[in-house]
Each structure stands twice: as structure tokens, then as C-alpha cells.
Amino acid sequence: MNSLQKNETWELVALLKGKKAISCKWVYRKKEALSSGESEKYKARLVAKDFSQKEGIDFNEIFSSVVKYCSIRILLAMVAMWDLELEQLDVKTTFLHGNL
Fold it and tell me: Where exactly are the structural domains of the chain?
């Protein structure tokens, strides 16, 4: 919630007459410790119940920036074939950095 607030993710607006707000819910998960020295972590995220939306009324387009599985396999094959070094990174709250 701090990241969302810090990045000014939302703006409070009046709900238009005849429109229904999308509700949300909390999803909780326990992340197991990978080694004996680590402790397990508890994670929570707030998700929209977008299944209540109707295409053409509440939205027109859908986009999700997720890589295809075959793309990952091709990349790993190229790394193995040419004996390359591979590094990985994770951008926290990446969905906050794009323009809608």
C-alpha cells in the first residue's frame, strides 16, 4: 500500500451516475523459506474483481506485459549454445511505471 500511495497510483473521483465501482479483495500467501537460515514470509496483495466488468462498457482493451514461455526457452537455448552469461532482475511494482 505504501508503494501505491507513494507513486500516486489512484485519484479519488466521483462515481458517474449509472456506473458501478469495481470491488476488490485481499489475497494472502505464505512464502516458504528457501533455506534453513531464512524465515518464511507472509505476503498480501489487493486485487480488483475485474470479472464483474463488461467488455465495451467498462473497458475496450486488455494488456498484460508477460513474456511467453517459448521466448524464455529460446533465450535459455541461446545462452547455452553460445556459453553466455545470463542475469535476471525484477522490477518491483512494475505496473506502476507504465503509461495507461
Answer: 22-31+43-87
